[in-house]
Amino acid sequence: RGGGGARAHKGGGKMASTAAGKQRIPKVAKVKNKAPAEVQITAEQLLREAKERELELLPPPPQQKITDVEELNDYKLRKRKTFEDNIRKNRTVISNWIKYAQWEESLKEIQRARSIYERALDVDYRNVTLWLKYAEMEMKNRQVNHARNIWDRAITTLPRVNQFWYKYTYMEEMLGNVAGSRQVFERWMEWQPEEQAWHSYINFELRYKEVDRARSIYERYILFRALAVLVLVHPDVKNWIKYARFEEKHSYFAHARKVYERAVEFFGEEHMDEHLYVAFAKFEENQKEFERVRVIYKYALDRIPKQDAQNLFKNYTIFEKKFGDRRGIEDIIVSKRRFQYEEEVKTNPHNYDAWFDYLRLVESDADAETVREVYERAIANVPPIQEKRHWKRYIYLWVNYALYEELEAKASKRTRQVYQACLELLPHKKFTFAKMWLLYAQFEIRQKNLPLARRALGTSIGKCPKNKLFKGYIELELQLREFDRCRKLYEKFLEFAPENCTSWIKFAELETILGDIDRARAIYELAIGQPRLDMPEVLWKSYIDFEIEQEEYEKTRNLYRRLLQRTQHVKVWISLAQFELSAGREERLLRCRQVYEEANKAMRSCEEKEERVMLLESWRSFEDEFGTDATKERIDKLMPEKIKKRRKLQAEDGSDAGWEEYYDYIFPEDTANQPNLKLLAMAKLWKKQQQESEAAAMDPDKDIDESQT
C-alpha cells in the first residue's frame, strides 16, 4: 500500500453531549508518519492471498428433493425466471436461448421449447447452430413434419449453408423418402453449389442404381463447370476424368471414350493438361488399344510445353517398356533426355558441358539438319569475356562441329566454312588457339589442297606467332621433305623465341641429319651464346653429345671447360671424368683421375656438402674399378665422416619452434686445416677412454675373466 504507518490519535475524537444537547463533530485523524512503508503490498498480492486462502469460495448449495407438484412448479418458476433474466440482460447471446430451450425440452415441454427457438430466430435468424439445434430437437422427438418445416425454412433463408442441405437430404433418405430427397437435391443444384454437392447427388442416385439419372447429373455438372471455365478461364479436367471413369466403371466404354474426346475437344490446344491425356491413354491401355495409346501420348507430347509434361513422359516411358519394342523405348528415352538438356541449356546457355552432352545425344539419333541446328545454337553462345580461360571449353564446340561436317556429314565445303568462321571469330590480338589453325591446315592437306594449308599456317604465324604453330608448320614441311622451308621456318622461330633451347637443338639435329656439320656446329655456338635460355643444361648436353658423336674429343674438352667456367656443378665434373674415361685409350685413367683431383679442389669451397660427397663417391667407384691399393687408400682417407647434429628452429614470428636433427659431413681435409675440429676429436677420444676406465674399476672381475680368456 502506498501510505504506511497511519496511526490514530491517542485521544481519539470523543463523542459527548453538551449541556445544550449539541453533538460534537469527531476530529479527523492526523497521520504523523507519512513515509512509505518498508514492505509495499500490491493489489495483485492481495488477490493472490485471497485465492490461496480460498476466502471467496462459497460452499455448494445443498441438494434439494422435489416431493410434490407445488415444489416442482416453484422450481420451474425460479428456473424460468433465471433464464428470462439472462435473456433480458443480453438478447444476442444465443447460448442462453439454446440452454433455455434444451432445459424445456428435458422437461418434455416441447411447445415451450419451440416457442423459445422461434423467439431466438426472431433475434438472429442467421445463426446456423440455432437452426441445427431446433431441427435436431424436432427429429429427436420424432416430429418429422415440424423438422421438414424447419429445414425448409432454413434452406430458404440461408441457401448457401451446405450443412442444412446435407442434413435435410440425409433425413429424407433415412426416412425412406427417396423422391423427397431427390427433390431437395434438385432444389440444391439450382443454386449451383460446390463440387462436393454434385458428387453427393451422384452418389445418392448410384446408391439406388439410378445410373441414367447419375449420367444426366454428370452432364449438367460438366456443362455448368464448362460455363464457369469460360467465365473464369481456369480449366479443370478432373471433373471430365471423373465422368469418364464413372462410365468406364459401369462398363459403358464407348460413352467413356466419347467423354474423353469431348474433353480434348473442349480444352483444345490452349489449355491442354497432361492429366487428361494420361487418363485417356490409361483408359485406352485398359481396352488393349495400344496404337491409340501411342497416338495420344505423341499428340500430347508434341503440343504440351516440356516443363509441364513430366508426368506424361513418365507414363509414356512405362507404357513403352510394357508394350513397346526396343525402338520405341529408345525414342522415348531420347526424347526425355533431349528435354532435360533443353532445360539445362535454356537455364544457362554458357554451360558448354550440357551442350556437349546434348550434341552427343543428337548426333546419335537425328538427321544432319537437326544436328546442324543444335550446333549453330551452341556456337552462338560466345563467351562474354575475352579471356582464354573462358574460351577453352567453347572452342571445342567448333572443333566437334568441323569434325562432324567432315567425318559424318561428308561435307568438305561446310567444314571449310566452319573453320574459317571460327578463325574469324577468335580475337587473335589478345589470344588464339593453335589447335584450330593446325586442324584447319591438316584438313586442307587431307583435301589435297597444300597451298591453302600453307597459307593458313603462314597467316597464323603472321597474326599470332606461337611455339606450337611453328612446331606444327615445321613438322608439316618435314613430312613433305621441304628442308629449305624448314630452315626458313626455324630461322623465323628462333627470331621469335631465341630462348627456346628445344628449337635450337631441333634445328641443329636437322642440319646434322642433312650432313651439314658446320652449320649444326654454328647453330650450337649461336645457341650457347644467347643471353637468356630456358634450359641451358639440355642445350650444352646436346652440344657435347654432338661433338662426341663426331669424335671431336678436343672440342668436347673445350666445351666442358667453357661450361665449367659458367658453372661448377658436380654433375658437370662427373660427366667430364666419365668422358675422359671413355674417350682416351692410353692416358684415359690419368686424365680421369686428374679431373677428379681438380674437381675435389674446386668443390672444397662448395657450400653443398652433398654434392662434394657425390663427387667422392663417384671417384671411389672409379678407383674401385680401375685404381691401385694406394689410390683406393687415398680416396678412403678423403671420404667424410657422417655425424648427427641438432639445430634450433624458429617460427615465422621469431619464436622458438623446437630443435631439429640433421646429418652433417666432416671432411678430413677440412679437419686438418681447422685445428679446433682436431682438438674436439681428441677431447671426444679422451672422454671415451675415461668412461671405459671407470667401467673397468666398477667391475674388476670382468677384467680378470677377459684377461684369462
From TrEMBL:
It holds the Pfam family HAT_Syf1_CNRKL1_C. GO terms for biological process: spliceosomal complex assembly. GO terms for cellular component: nuclear speck; post-mRNA release spliceosomal complex; precatalytic spliceosome; Prp19 complex; U2-type catalytic step 2 spliceosome. Keywords: mRNA processing, mRNA splicing, Nucleus, Phosphoprotein, Repeat, Spliceosome. Residues 95-384, 397-566 form the Pre-mRNA-splicing factor Syf1/CRNKL1-like C-terminal HAT-repeats domain. Its main location: nucleus. Residues 1-34, 690-709 are annotated as: Disordered. It is found in: Nucleus speckle. Gene3D superfamilies: Tetratricopeptide repeat domain. SMART domains: HAT. Residues 24-33 have a biased composition (Basic residues). Belongs to the crooked-neck family. Involved in pre-mRNA splicing process. As a component of the minor spliceosome, involved in the splicing of U12-type introns in pre-mRNAs. This is Crooked neck-like protein 1. It comes from Tichodroma muraria. The gene is Crnkl1.
